[in-house]
Structure prediction request, 159 residues.
Amino acid sequence: MKILITGGNNAKALKLMKAFPSHFILLADYGGVPGIITEKYAFASLGVLNKDSIAHILLNFCITEGIDCIIPLHDYEVEPLAKSAVLFGEYGIQVLLPDADVITDYIGEEKANYQNFAVFIHGDCIFSSESNSVAQKLPVTFNGVFGYNQSDDLKLFTV
Prediction:
């Protein structure tokens, strides 16, 4: 599987790579990006940032690059991609976010640094940065990458 993680110039994106050890990760960001390609991951530029057409830019990029799953880490990408998830799905691209109708419940008020993060796919916690994680015991039914501290209050893991 080929996974696109946006916000690739941020340390959070690099942390997230641990959750997908057997997949190829494409770390992408807007503007200048380091030109690094390895067997397990690569960096790529998404071009010039245009917040008015985020979903279009990312869909075109995903189709061109053969992406199977996208994990948006920029906060300004979250809502447009959640609203466009059905369109991405028609091209066989999974958007790893909760549904658009509940997405605002998981957007943090301010930039927070979380001690831990967890990845959910169809409600299953496939990765947690902490062993015996609180997140692994939560009854969830959605997709996404969530940050949390000691409480079970999950917020989207964004940059």
User: Anything to note?
Assistant: The radius of gyration is 15 Å. Residues 2-156 form a domain with the Rossmann fold fold (CATH 3.40.50.20). The chain has four helices and nine strands. Strands lie at 2-6, 24-29, 41-45, 69-71, 94-95, 116-121, 124-128, 144-148, 155-156.
